[in-house]
Amino acid sequence: MLREGALNNKTIVITGGGTGLGRSMGEALLQLGANLVITSRKLEVLKKTAAEMEAAFGGQVLPVACDVRHYHEVEAVIEAAEAKFGQVDGLVNNAAGNFISPTERLSHRAFNVIIDIVLKGSVNCTLAFGKHWIDKGQRNKTVTNIVTTYAWTGSAYVVPSACAKAGVLAMTRSLAVEWAKYGIRQNAIAPGPFPTKGAWDRLLPGELKKKFDLAKKVPLNRMGENHELADLLSYLVSDYSGYLNGEVITIDGGEWLKGAGQFNMLEMLPTEMWDAIEQMVRSVKGS
Ligand code: HXC
Ligand code: NAP
What we know:
- It is a single chain.
- This protein is of the alpha/beta class and 287 residues long.
- The chain has a single domain, classed as 3-Layer(aba) Sandwich (Rossmann fold), CATH 3.40.50.
- Helix content is 47%, strand content 13%.
- The chain has eleven helices and seven strands.
- It has a seven-stranded parallel sheet with strand order 3-2-1-4-5-6-7, with helices on both faces.
- Helix 1 runs parallel beside helix 2 (43-57), helix 3 (71-85) packs parallel to helix 4 and helix 4 runs parallel beside helix 6.
- The longest helix is centred in the middle third of the chain and has 29 residues, at 108-136.
- The chain starts with 10 loop residues before the first strand and ends in a 5-residue tail after the last helix.
- 36% of the residues are buried.
- The site of NADP nicotinamide-adenine-dinucleotide phosphate (NAP) has 29 residues, from helix 1, helix 4 and helix 7.
């Protein structure tokens, strides 16, 4: 979507960058000339991904093990990234944990593990990177948070994730105001359904994949394609989006609005019925 070389001289850190959407976003940034740092808990996965990315697209990818729940590990990512690339320009908070469950079946530890990864992990990264940039007086930085549409609608059966993503969205909007003076922009992306192994194995395990066709919930009648999300992320970390701050951009084919509009169910009516319906409605006069 962007011009070749649009991200030259930018270094972007993507948490959870070894798999799924994080990997796809990283590939797009790399193709536009960015230096990339990918992090997650599994160094072997990261190393393999980094090698495959460099072979396919050129550029430089630094894999660094980091559990976002541990602040000192996040600080070590900044150190490693600066040692290799000189400075970091953007943080993408993409790492997440999630699974479906009736909430009453969850132990407090199960609830906490999601809050710890998604909310506290994003807080740890944002705080560590933000403090660093502010202390060094470095400007023109971006934090982009990957949330989801149930950050504002809520959702049954993924309550810890909904609570955590809502918190991340609140942080996005709050710091967009507070840290703008330091030259740090904060935005969020809310993806709809993008089938990845990590998400689908935990959200639609086994037969559920066949039982619930998520494409049917989407007005555009299909799932998202990873490159569509990656293009949006590329724009948000680039200087072309320099006046975007505090925004959450939904990329879901219209999915959440379909569930929200009071009369959206009328979509199901066949066109032939509308003549009769119009007549009935027009005949209601003065009553
Ligand atoms: C109930 C569960 C559970 C389940 C784990 N627990 N799975 N409880 N149902 N299915 C409980 C455990 O019993 C334990 O509680 C506690 O949660 C912690 O579990 P651990 O396995 O020790 O945690 P950990 O090894 O840190 O693994 C974290 C994880 C795992 C979140 C549970 O799934 C993971 O690593 N996920 C990372 C990747 C991921 O989730 N990707 C999907 C993102 S998709 P007790 O009480 O027994 O000690 C996404 C999409 C959003 O976010 C929007 C979609 C539209
Ligand atoms: P995924 O492949 O499972 O990605 C999650 C990543 O987070 C993994 O790479 C995982 O790597 C990493 N991670 C988990 N716990 C971590 C921790 N404690 N510290 C560091 N890294 C950790 O799933 P995905 O679908 O690509 O999800 C990516 C993002 O998109 C998430 O924020 C998710 O909520 C969001 N999202 C996805 C969808 C969708 O339809 N797929 C929709 C809306 C939003 P390790 O296991 O190696 O740590």
